[in-house]
Amino acid sequence: xxxxxxxxxxxxxxxxxxDRPKQFIPVNGLPVLMHTLKAFRNYSDKLKIILVxxxxxxxYWNQLCTEFLFTESYSLIAGGETRFHSVKNGLDSxxxxxxxxxxxxxxxxxxxxxxxxxxxxQKAAQFGTAVVxxxxxxxxxxxxxxxxxxxxxxxxxxxxxxxxxxxxxWMKKAFNNPYxxxxxxCASVLEFEGYPIHLTEGSYENIKITTPEDLRWAEIYxxx
Length: 224
Prior knowledge:
The protein is an alpha/beta fold. The protein has helices at about 30-45, 60-65, 85-90, 115-125, 170-175, 185-190, 210-224; strands at about 5-10, 25, 30, 50-55, 75-80, 100-105, 130-135, 140-145, 150, 160-165, 200.
């Protein structure tokens, strides 16, 4: 059964207070995105990696690959208007293969372990879907308006991460639907089509780099 991963990296540097997109910011000697690609290549040399970037970033990315002597094998695909469209572009680049399993991962989650990747593919092969998640640590409250809020039971909530991994036939059918604003991630697209979402255990180290503080945590985790 062939395994694929679509790595989506279309973010900007706005919340990082950076003049370059966060996926290209160096941490521990390499741009964030290169750490992410290396993590998946370390999982398996047979894995098919599809990198989806805004076409406007192609030249800069290729310059970085030359500068950092980055030679990992992957296919480069142009992204779309939204994350949904970017994932669909990556998915459409895969030739028909009814037995394939496809993972989708954030390019700015570089601290992803081989064990989590392996379980994601195994569970997706078994159940059809496998979405990485972790339990909430903090108490939470729902805010109804500026004057009213109330406590919620955190045990019934999960924080969703990536990879999110699926049977390719289910995925292609789900992504044939027109884009809707409720499609916040791949799991929501598959769920809209009626497929059950199976949750797997993630890691608190599997952070999504969004703010400068996240970069500092990533540096610590990548050093371990």
